[in-house]
């Protein structure tokens, strides 16, 4: 069991490599010494405000070195952080998360304060109870909206011994919010030990050095960012944070990776598909890249093979896990010969983790080719869902394996099987959760958002794949009057309710739904309908 806490990666590296660059953001380079100082200033502010032990503190800022300093300062002070999506989520969703998490303090900046207070649907009465710690000037005009706005002070000497409060590694380190089937986002509570188990495995397995350069491509409220932030901190390497504008343009991002001599990148496969389709990459474009990690969705075989041909000197690794588990299985793609017409395996369990396949009758699957639900065991597994005991009970089962002595297993909801090499192969997703571009999406949450639009009587959302294997989200709706519905207006309505990546790609208005004998909407029929419609559209 690890003796460390998550912030100790920074503390140790700041002692060993004070003058090395910890973070590069735009033209700004921040050394480990500077990052440590900024983190201590955050911790000192929390001490001044008398923030309680183990209290959640929100972070509502775009990605930057200060955002990482805020995380570390919160941890140093024995609190935990709740990352709030500053880019894709509408304000209502942010407020819902603030309410659900119980956050009373938020570290933010003027850009985000302007965004949240200017929204007409914002619950301004609730905001009055929130204390804001502002990282920049110009906050005065927003003071009327909050109980208090306090500027974060970066002056004077601050020492670790004066502000540090030590947690234990089972204490909560951070809470990540993800799509919830009830329409309310779910808070996944992760401990120091959960994160450290993953980070330590990454350091041991990938063997990065202080000379490596990592790229921060994933949003900080997304679980892939745990690797981006903490693996470099653990070894004293440099993390390069991508500017939002650069990140949206494949050509600019490719150039940025080249100029910054990035050696490690961890992303969803969609990024590489964009590089191949729109970035015009060619063999030899990434001479410095040595490790390409991908997760969050299936990497279509034809694109994976092309990527490997274009970056022949890099290792390609398929990492598998959920927010609740982080990564707990992995597979190294040794060569393009490993790539067939089906996705590569998700592999074998990481050290300190165990991957178990459980059949429908509740027994462990050991035979090749037999399908079952993948379950996880080990210190990688989350503490639980915040304020959701019902879901916690549904998500864990007592292991049927005698060797586990009655330990709990986390049910991933993914159907898998063993291949002839005893590697785990992903088959599909059970239930109503899908992943797109690495983001987890609960289809019922989209339905709940559609129901808030006037004239909608019923809604059913399904996922299908087009001819290229791209996941498409499709919504069938019943309305009071067909003439009263505008799909354009519905889309505008939805972006105010849910993140943009959850808005359906296709809509269809029906007079009635096909139903099963028990009265439920026939979703398989709906899928077939959209597959046919998409095929017709793509054939034009």
From TrEMBL:
It comes from the Bacteria. SUPFAM superfamilies: Acetyl-CoA synthetase-like. The keyword Phosphoprotein applies. Keywords: Phosphopantetheine, Phosphoprotein. It holds the Pfam family AMP-binding_C. The keyword Phosphoprotein applies. This is Gramicidin S synthase 2. The gene is grsB_4.
